Amino acid sequence: MAPAAPLQGRTALVTGASRGIGAATAVALDSAGARVALAARDGGRLRAVAAELSHDPVVLEVDLGEPAAPGRLAAAASAGLGGGVDVLVNNAAFAQRLPITAHSAELIDQMNAVNVRAPLLLIAALVPGMIERGGGSIISLSSVSGLIGTPMRSGYGATKGAIDAASRCLARELGEHGIRVNTVAPGVVDTELWARNKQIPGVIEQVNGQTPLGRWGTPQDIADVIVFLASDAARFITGETLRPDGGMSTTLDLYSGNV
What we know:
With about 260 residues, the protein is α/β, with parallel strands linked by helices. It has a single domain (about 10-190, about 220-250), classed as Rossmann fold, CATH 3.40.50. About 40% of the residues lie in helices and about 15% in strands. The chain has helices at about 20-30, 45-50, 70-80, 105-135, 155-175, 195-200, 205-210, 220-230, 250; strands at about 10-15, 35-40, 60, 85-90, 135-140, 180-185, 240. Strands 3-2-1-4-5-6-7 form a 7-stranded parallel beta sheet, with helices on both faces. Helix 4 (about 105-135) links the parallel strand 4 (about 85-90) and strand 5.
């Protein structure tokens, strides 16, 4: 039988924790017994999420688009959590749904800064501490857009494919230190990011029809997978991309329309 608090005594850092999947993940990790540092740009929303947690959470306001921000965040999280981070969840992301003709150098750089550079620099800064602590779990949020062709998301999909590839490399590099590295690639999740698209006639029905389980994902669906990867239940899993997408990416024949 699984322990009631599988992450009891462990520490975790969750980026993009002020809303959506990040907020749900912070709550789920706390419920599993971990002490959580929550990071995002919106301090007010971070504090609102932290108010739901039971294990003395740490709130850290940060803009991960700044080159030096990951290093500062790693130091602040390690200090705030009392000496180190056992679980890193790279959830913060910058996404735009645009045709390729609307992609500028500035936009591509912004997406890469948050979606690729920041996670890699956070990992680089936290790995020495994980090695000292005897191991750790690194979980980065990927996307169905990094796995299959999704329209109007070429720049975003490229960043998610990059983090999948980097995580496979890191799994090989860090495995000898007891550090597991995995990614989680959600499909369509009902968060604020989808509020505008949901207003387009037919979008809700289209997503339901493209998903074998017949519904949209929820932030909790994704958070539960992240807690699993953070726990000892996943102790022999590394270098993987798990797909909590209701079966969308493995069964979809044609990805088209407004989604």
